[in-house]
Specification:
11-stranded mixed beta sheet, disordered N terminus
Length: 618
């Protein structure tokens, strides 16, 4: 918002020498924020410079009148002006140091002041000046409060990720943490056994320990105590916890396509041992220690507000394994991979983000660390580097988990070369900071879609996603057959979740007989005017989804010009050729942004787009 206004503010605060020190210090130099003091303070102590486009004025607050505890009348005398503001004139304002938003009276009078919700910054809106509109949005008067110093905790707390109805990771040493008075001892006990675990708060009041969990079961109770304070977590289950992260296709709710789209599935979603946790969408300029989350049991009502992919994945695991499943949904539509990576990693490995990250310290000083809703600078959004990690991943660390499922990539469609290293770096960044080794990370390859504004094929991004498979304990669910060229949010979500669940069941739960992948290109060999392709992960064999000839193959010779090709299944290989290319050098498959080819294995899992060349991305 400040960028659009190109606002500049200069504020000079001078203490009234008649105010006693005992008044000034407790008020943190906020003489205008208390009516009794405001009547004695000199209005001339606050000078304001506001510039919006070509309209500029410098003014001094005059005639501050106490109107109650929540707002005050004032007038602004114009001392200096440029283009449209006349010196000596006054502008009426309302000074509101306590409440946010408009009051009815302020709306009637046409002006108001809004207090920023985070760092006590005050905002002035002079709507008119001499009958002319002066500013359409709020512009800052003063940050009369210094940055808030973090005080030591005075009471016992448990991190916001731990709530009633939660799921703790089974058969492990589960991490639990919180705050209390520095130096105080904390005791933690879970009702599944008789053991008591201990922790001591450090100098900042932070405590953390691990509690040993048993096999799947519940409900249990967790009791945390320090001194005469006791906190209880009720209806706690021991099971497997999965993070559901990404952008809109992971965020997409069960109600997202209308309440009747998955009506039958929702009506059957009565799984008390499946629990949902939604992490609020908040942007952050620096890493946060806590999060305001809540857990709910899966019911036909609660499921409607949860991630469709997350629910179908979790319920399938629950039915297959008969253990409680905890699903933590932390995602944001339109978010980019860099938004989910830590600032430390980005600065070290991706210098191209340093300029954007360089804006954060000043903005942090001006208006605070976190932003929710529309109250943020225009340049900050869910694609800003580290902005989602700081508030939607960091506060979860080091919550003990079984693994991660991920659906993201559309917002990075224009930078596939960067994504080749950015995405695996983000995965490793999470693993390093979570401190649980190479936990499973299963992700969805972006579906076919016609990106009108992208000059290059989306297949380059799909290729970049596939490169992350070089990391240990990763898997990719291919969606070449279930996209929608006209809708970036395809309605087919259940097969996506099924493919993620297959990866987890096979690789994380030892269900070795499950086929979890479609055909994966391996090698090519030229034979005259033909190219023979070999694959891995063919399952029961190569097949055409619709029984028709294979589609979306192209071939090129030395000129690197790709033309449509004929492709036939020959046992476990595919033979590709074209009458236009006598000496073939390279083959591409499904390389259009919205291609939906029909190559699959007999288990019905599609092949990813691929190319046998390494020509530059363009």
């Amino acid at each position: 918002m400040l960028d659009s206004l190109t606002t500049q503010v200069k504020v000079h605060l001078f203490m009234n020498r008649y105010l006693s020190l005992s008044v000034l210090l407790p008020l943190l130099l906020l003489p205008l924020c208390v009516p009794a003091v405001a009547q004695r303070a000199k209005p001339e102590a606050i000078q304001v410079r506001v510039r919006k486009a070509e309209k500029v004025f410098v003014g001094t607050l005059q005639k501050i009148t106490d109107q109650g505890n929540d707002w005050m009348h004032a007038s602004l005398k114009v001392d200096q002006s440029i283009k449209g503001a006349k010196p000596g004139s006054t502008v009426p304002v309302i000074w509101r140091p306590k409440l946010s938003g408009y009051t009815p009276q302020a709306q009637q009078e046409g002006f108001a002041v809004l207090q920023h919700k985070f760092q006590g910054r005050y905002w002035l809106r002079p709507d008119t000046f001499e009958g002319k509109e002066l500013a359409q949005d709020f512009v800052p008067i003063a940050n009369t409060q210094p940055p808030q110093q973090k005080s030591a905790p005075t009471k016992l707390t448990i991190s916001g990720a731990f709530k009633d109805h939660m799921v703790l990771q089974r058969e492990t040493d589960a991490v639990i943490w919180g705050t209390c008075v520095p130096g105080k001892k904390v005791k933690i006990a879970g009702s599944w056994n008789s053991k008591i675990y201990h922790a001591t708060a450090d100098k900042d009041g932070k405590w953390q320990t691990k509690i040993k969990t048993t096999g799947a079961g519940g409900p249990y109770q967790v009791v945390v105590g320090s001194g005469n304070q006791t906190l209880k977590l009720n209806d706690v289950l021991l099971g497997d916890v999965w993070i559901c992260g990404g952008q809109s296709n992971m965020q997409w709710k069960m109600r997202g396509f209308g309440v009747n789209h998955w009506k039958e599935d929702a009506q059957q979603a009565n799984f008390p041992m499946v629990r949902f946790c939604d992490v609020p969408q908040v942007l952050g300029l620096e890493q946060q220690d806590n999060v305001s989350a809540s857990w709910k049991a899966c019911t036909p009502n609660s499921v409607m507000s949860f991630s469709a992919v997350g629910y179908f994945f979790g319920s399938q695991l629950h039915k297959e394994l008969n253990v409680p499943i905890g699903l933590i949904s932390t995602n944001w539509g339109g978010s980019s991979a860099e938004a989910w990576a830590s600032e430390e990693m980005l600065r070290k490995q991706f210098p191209e983000f340093k300029q954007a990250l360089g804006k954060y310290p000043q903005q942090l000083k001006e208006s605070g660390a976190t932003y929710q809703g529309k109250d943020k600078p225009k340049w900050l959004n869910q694609r800003s580097p580290s902005a989602c990690y700081n508030t939607m991943i960091k506060p979860l660390l080091p919550y003990t988990i079984r693994g991660v499922i991920w659906y993201q990539g559309e917002s990075n469609i224009k930078t596939p070369k960067q994504y080749q290293t950015l995405f695996p770096a983000m995965i490793q960044d999470w693993r390093d900071n979570w401190g649980q080794g190479d936990f499973p990370f299963y992700y969805v390859q972006i579906a076919p879609f016609h990106y009108k504004t992208n000059p290059m094929s989306a297949a380059f991004l799909r290729e970049a996603q596939g490169m992350a498979l070089a990391l240990p304990n990763t898997g990719m669910a291919v969606t070449m057959d279930i996209g929608d060229p006209t809708n970036i949010h395809p309605k087919v979500k259940k097969p996506v979740a099924d493919r993620l669940a297959r990866l987890a069941l096979k690789h994380s739960y030892g269900k070795s007989k499950i086929v979890a992948s479609g055909p994966v290109y391996d090698t090519q060999k030229a034979k005259g005017n033909k190219v023979v392709l070999r694959f891995t992960q063919i399952g029961g064999g190569l097949a055409s989804r619709d029984g028709k000839p294979l589609t979306h193959f192209t071939i090129a010779g030395n000129d690197k010009k790709f033309v449509p090709a004929e492709a036939k299944i020959d046992g476990d290989t595919i033979v590709v050729q074209s009458s236009q290319v006598s000496n073939p050098k390279a083959v591409r498959f499904g390389w259009g942004s919205d291609d939906m080819p029909n190559l699959m294995n007999k288990e019905g899992l599609p092949a990813s787009s691929f190319r046998t060349d390494d020509y530059p991305i363009k």
